[in-house]
Task: inverse folding
């Protein structure tokens, strides 16, 4: 009888872990929706200057918030029924709670802001609340997914690839934070929230290379250098950015071939990481990934550097020309710090992945 | 292994930093070009009557980001009970500009600013594809006898040369931009 009870208990525990894992997947998936909607929304504002809160990108963003909310609720149900592994899943759950509180609060806050001050820019109190909420939720989702996979140590070859779904939203949400602090899209009739141009220049040069390298190295490290992880992760990032920032802009369609080439550094880094599996190979991959940030963040990163280098008024159809016009100067100023930040990100990703794996 | 990495990186940087940018920069920038057709219902009216000024604008050039048609009223200071929009098919809502407001000047897209001396209505479409036409129809009921003047113009952005505005010569308005002038005599 006791053996029977033990078996039932063990199966219930596993079932609860799976529920928590499913909740984490939903959280990451929801944030993916929010970030895709967010990137599309920036393009929509640049191209069409929408005059209402109710737009397709906003609909995508807020349906992502709803999916995330459901994901957090499911994670909580799974967590409540855990007995032995509560300590493993308590950190991701707490981060998710913090994130979802900010996310759900940002919706009505944004609506009230729009009603009182018209359409806001990229950086505004409700938008920043939303972006920080996205970042917390995505980190919670990523830790939840990583810890479940680590605990399970499954022999299923495909399961570690689910990590991509955990890391990609963190990368996209992190990009959202950096973009809002660096792009000059935040001045409105009521508020002048555009960042100082020198501050924006420095932050973009430091933070974007760091984030690319950190995201790729995290995914590779947690998956124990699984081949293909960095390529798929980078490919999906490029696909999302390409579809939301380049695709809708008729005048930039031709540059899709340029943007597609950015898959090469991810493939190279993937090969280096999965065959090398050493500290030296990680540093090399980090440096490579950091060095290509200006190309990976095409086209909007141009606006940050244009403020300092040209100060030109750039309408959407001129993005393309201006981006390539300042490219030699930007690369000359940023290549060294970008490589250094890519390498620093390797150390941070190492420490972070160890923290995630230890409970 | 290192050999493959070096070759692949050289290929990547050569294409993305040297070859493709040169190709893209050599390509001519898109030049949208507006055209404006105006129809005035009457040039003589009596006080209390209305007249219509209808504009059909078109982009006769390349794809553009913004297409603007502006109607300004230099003989007025307030058009609230005088001008009504009878029909309008631009993507963005019309902007009512009042005297004293800061507005862009000399086709600078906002880099040069002046203070508006008289009211105007700005219609905007974003983006603007080649060959597309837009209508703005105004019904005007002057409240004073004398000459009632309307300035009409159209600008496309990016504004690269005189091709990007219409008309390309004639009278200048308070923004230092060329306008078509229409006068209606309001009789007692």
Result:
């Amino acid at each position: 009888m006791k053996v029977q009870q033990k078996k039932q208990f063990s199966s219930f525990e596993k079932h609860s872990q799976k529920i928590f894992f499913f909740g984490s997947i939903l959280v990451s998936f929801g944030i993916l929706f929010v970030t895709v909607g967010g990137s599309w929304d920036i393009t929509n504002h640049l191209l069409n200057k929408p005059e209402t809160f109710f737009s397709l990108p906003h609909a995508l963003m807020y349906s992502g918030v709803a999916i995330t909310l459901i994901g957090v609720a499911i994670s909580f149900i799974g967590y409540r029924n855990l007995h032995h592994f509560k300590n493993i899943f308590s950190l991701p759950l707490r981060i998710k709670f913090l994130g979802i509180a900010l996310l759900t609060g940002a919706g009505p806050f944004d609506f009230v802001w729009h009603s009182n001050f018209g359409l806001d820019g990229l950086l505004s109190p409700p938008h920043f609340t939303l972006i920080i909420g996205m970042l917390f939720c995505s980190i919670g989702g990523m830790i939840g997914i990583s810890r479940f996979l680590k605990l399970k140590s499954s022999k299923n070859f495909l399961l570690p690839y689910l990590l991509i779904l955990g890391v990609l939203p963190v990368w996209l949400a992190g990009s959202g934070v950096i973009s809002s602090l660096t792009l000059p899209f935040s001045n409105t009739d009521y508020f002048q929230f555009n960042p100082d141009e020198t501050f924006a220049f420095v932050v973009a040069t430091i933070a974007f290379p760091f984030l690319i390298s950190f995201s790729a190295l995290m995914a590779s490290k947690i998956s124990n250098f699984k081949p293909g992880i960095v390529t798929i992760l980078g490919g999906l990032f490029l696909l999302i950015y390409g579809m939301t920032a380049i695709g809708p802009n008729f005048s930039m369609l031709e540059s899709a071939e340029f943007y597609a080439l950015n898959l090469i550094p991810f493939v190279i880094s993937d090969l280096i990481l999965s065959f090398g599996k050493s500290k030296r190979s990680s540093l090399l991959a980090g440096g490579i990934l950091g060095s290509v940030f200006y190309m990976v963040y095409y086209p909007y990163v141009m606006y940050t550097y244009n403020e300092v280098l040209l100060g030109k008024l750039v309408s959407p159809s001129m993005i393309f020309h201006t981006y390539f016009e300042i490219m030699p100067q930007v690369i000359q100023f940023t290549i060294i710090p970008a490589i250094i930040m890519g390498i620093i990100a390797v150390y941070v990703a190492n420490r972070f992945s160890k923290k995630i794996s230890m409970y | 292994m290192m050999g493959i990495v070096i070759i692949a990186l050289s290929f990547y940087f050569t294409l993305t930093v040297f070859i493709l940018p040169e190709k893209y920069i050599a390509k001519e920038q898109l030049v949208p070009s507006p055209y404006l057709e105006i129809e005035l219902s009457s040039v003589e009216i009596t006080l209390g009557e209305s007249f219509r000024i209808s504009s059909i604008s078109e982009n006769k050039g390349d794809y553009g980001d913004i297409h603007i048609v502006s109607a300004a009223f230099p003989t007025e200071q307030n058009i609230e009970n005088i001008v009504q929009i009878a029909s309008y098919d631009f993507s963005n809502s019309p902007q009512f500009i009042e005297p004293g407001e800061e507005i862009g000047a000399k086709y600078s897209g906002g880099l040069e600013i002046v203070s508006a001396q008289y009211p105007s209505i700005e219609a905007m479409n974003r983006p603007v594809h080649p060959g597309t036409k837009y209508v703005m129809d105004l019904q005007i009921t002057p409240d004073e006898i004398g000459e009632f003047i309307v300035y009409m113009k159209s600008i496309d952005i990016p504004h690269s040369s005189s091709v990007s505005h219409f008309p390309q010569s004639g009278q200048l308005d308070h923004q230092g931009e060329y306008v078509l002038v229409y006068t209606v005599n309001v009789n007692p």
About this structure: Chain B has two domains: 1-30, 34-187.
